Amino acid sequence: MTSATEATDLIEKIHAHGKQNACDDTFFAPHDFPVGQYLPQGDINILRLAAVPEGMVQVEKQAQLAPGTSRGSRHCIKAEDLEHCTFYAFLDANPLEGPVVVMAKTTTIEHPEHRDYVWPPSIVAVGYQRRLADEIRRSQD
Description:
Blueprint: H1 4-21, E1 27-28, E2 38-41, E3 44-49, E4 56-59, E5 76-77, E6 85-90, E7 97-103, E8 107-110, E9 117-119, E10 122-128, E11 130-131, E12 137-138
Parallel strand pairs: 1-9
Antiparallel strand pairs: 2-3, 3-10, 4-6, 5-8, 6-7, 7-10, 8-9, 11-12
């Protein structure tokens, strides 16, 4: 059995390795980022779309893309970019479906723990990663 000291040492080594290998560089999505492809940012996926899907309705702008109050849920559109974004949602969205955002100009999606993503003018869908359970639930940072 591992002692508490050995466990603490292992955790410290894991943290040190993570800090040494972390990448906080801003990621710039290319203009030709393919429709149908996605980029993960922590526990959300950002999927490039060709158009707003049928059946969606325009909703109020909300900078934070993932529900919640934890630090991990702070996937946010940069304040000065919010004005050129339009938000859509399904009226009957399942727990994994977030908003669709039409970004008329270059837009930054910020996060305090993950690298920021800068998107060219695009239409993207925000999806939440599934947490393994009997019922469908979204994963949370």
